[in-house]
Amino acid sequence: MDSGIGLLAAAAAIRRLRPDADLVLSSDPDGMPWGPRTPEDVTAHALACALAAAEHRPQALIVACNTATVHALPALRAALEPAVPVIGTVPAIKPAAAGARKVAIWATPATTGSPYQRGLIEDFGNGAEITEVPCPGLADAVDRADEAATAGAVAAAAALTPSDVEAVVLGCTHYELVADRIRAALAAPALLYGSADAVAAQTLRRIGAEPRPDAAPTGSLAVILSGRAGTVTPEALAYAEGRSLGAAAAPAAAEAC
Fold first, then answer.
1. Mean pLDDT over each residue of the chain, to the nearest integer
2. Catalytic-residue membership of 135
């Protein structure tokens, strides 16, 4: 679940590990963006998305949204666990700082400088020199698949990123969809750290499932848009992750993850 199509990265990562997994994508196009909302409002929207997905009897729920993880994770876990494990998304500061001395964190303006992000830096920064880079408008541009707006937002964030940075943490799930464009915009080569692969692996561990990337690609796909049954949107199909998921045409099975 996510406010928009930021969930595509985690869903595609699950699909790579388990091509036989039935997936339910629950987003909130009517209510996005969530970033400017109050914590209470974010929680209400996240709960609505989660409960709509829960009607498909999932084995786990991935909160593929940093904003929802910050504000709504306790409420989501209270509503769904222990029956449905809830897996949040945290910026990959720890692995980035473990391997680099100069790190930049790209995140939404609301997250940049927040007590939440500062706490993660304090806990997992490993003494690295860390620069917080606000990326106004980038998530919204990615969600609209607006090439010009995405290019402008990426260029603006790259201009705020130190030229000698060694690693960039993608602190919003939407950013992983345009990782190649971010990499190309940086002044020097840098490793990019997203969260999707780690979240997918943790999800399988939580439900006791093993990765089986060679499994038959029988997994189905259901799409929920602000509580209504829908289909993969044209905006989602603008990205490789969306196209890889859009190939699944069968209705979701009762047991989905």
1. 92
2. no
Q: How far apart are CA 181 and CA 150, in angstroms?
A: 9
Task: Give the number of other CB atoms < 10 A from CB of residue 155.
Answer: 11
The H-or-E segment that residue 81 falls in is none
Of all residues in the chain, the percent with pLDDT exceeding 90 is 82
One-letter amino acid identity for 230?
G
H helix or E strand, kind and range, residue 129: strand 129-134
DSSP-assigned beta bridge partners for residue 131: 104
Alpha carbon distance, N-terminus to C-terminus of the chain: 11
Q: Respond yes or no: is residue 49 known to be catalytic.
A: no
Identify the active-site residue in 49, 65, 135, 257: 65
Which pair of tokens denotes residue 28? 């909130």
91 three-class SS? coil
Query: What does the pLDDT look like over 158-168, one tens digit per residue?
Result: 999 999 999 99
Measured at the CA of 222, the angle between CA 206 and CA 20, to 5 degrees, comes to 55
**Is residue 117 within 8 Å of 135, Cβ to Cβ?**
no
Give me the residues paired with residue 225 across strands.
27, 228
Pick the closest to residue 3 from 150, 173, 134 (CA basis).
173
Q: Which domains are assigned to the chain?
A: 5-89+197-246 (3.40.50.1860), 93-194 (3.40.50.1860)
Active-site residue identified among 49, 135, 172, 257: 172
Would you state the pLDDT for residue 7? 95
Q: How confident is the model at residue 226 (pLDDT cuts 50, 70, 90)?
A: very high
